Sequence to fold (458 residues):
Amino acid sequence: MTKFMPEPFKIKSVEPMYFISDERREAAIQEAGFNTFLLKSKDCYIDLLTDSGTSAMSDKQWAGLMVGDEAYAGSENFYHLEEVVKEHFGFKHLIPTHQGRGAENILSTLTIKPGDYVPGNMYFTTTRFHQERNGATFVDVICDEAHNPDLADVPFKGNVDLAKLQKLIDEVGGDKIPYICLAVTVNLAGGQPVSMANIKAVSELCHKHGIQVMYDATRCVENAYFIKEREAGFEDKSIKEILFEMFSYGDGCTMSGKKDCLTNNGGFLCVNDDELFAEAKGMVVQFEGMPSYGGLAGRDMEAMAIGIKESVEFDYISHRVNQIRYLGERLDAAGVPMVKPYGGHAIFLDARAFLPHLDQQQLPAQALAAAIYRTSGVRTMERGIVSAGRDVKTGENHVPKLETVRLTIPRRVYTYAHMDYVADAIIELYKNRESIKGLEFVFEPKVLRFFTGRFEEI
Ligand code: PM9
Fold:
């Protein structure tokens, strides 16, 4: 049997892509201040910046756009989305938002009081931003293994370390912790999953102390796939059943629909608590729109409802994870250092091991992402010291153990042939890695600096 089964779709509509000349790439990376976020899309040959909003929609989703009910209130598509979310996630209440951070804003504003603590299994940029904006201190309670890129045999590197969580509860008390943000999978750990056993244990511990369990559900289908593949007792369960069980232990979630819901736009907040739901409805009308659309068009909600159903199809999700594994294995065979095991949405290159001649203060991941673009036209993203930002209290740089470049694979967009191009380009660059110079900031924005910061070669 073929190890890597072909793409589980036929191509019905195509978007041409063009190779970018050496001269244009060189000019483009200079114009972008060595920040791949600032490159123009037309200057990118293969775009692995993110898997957010970059999915290819199916024929059924495109057809769904045509049945968009664009009524200001009570759109048919909202009721469809509500039904699908209830069937797959199981939470009692749904509030659509324009994207994930819209939901993060509502949840953090309504539940956090200044001086609170929000534990999480590793930070995410926008998520921590909203927690801190509302006066909370984020506390990382992920297991130590998650910070080590080389531990390839740990199947659930996204797991919460229960001792770390217990220690925080003992130190500050449950009443200072409105919720735990439980990410499934964990983006910045390299797309690593959380086991069902760990989810259950976290839920028990939190609920014992009156702490709500709020999932960051952004890549929850990938998490369900890893549970099916790696956790005893789940091999015969469907992805949908596993997903439903994962959420049955919690109190709500924030969701960026732009990832596992297979859409180009959208997100939502789910909660079980009636009072919190009432307050969230009061807030969504101030910042997003009516509670029955939350910043989305009816057609977007329809595409999201259909996308959720497609995302739990086994052929889709197994191809997705295996395409990433394929890229990982090709790079690994050439000795390119990476976070292992391979994640659910991306390969994360270990920039410090790739560029041992650079100190972390010389921004090796930012430099590597720029060099990959410069030499191949492949756009990737820094996920290291630049993304980590500064401590809000001390102003000092956060210094993450993982200094990575993320090769993020959009869903249903690229084929194995594209992965070969990417692998060849990075392997070639790895042979010439000594030529890559470090970078320094020439413009550093105060918040979420990785999006718009500018750099110069040292
Ligand atoms: N993630 C990503 O590329 C897009 C923006 S940050 C560069 O990985 C998690 C785990 C995410 C995420 C976005 C959000 C926010 C929340 N949690 O982008 O607002 O990966 O829809 O979601 C990005 P929105």
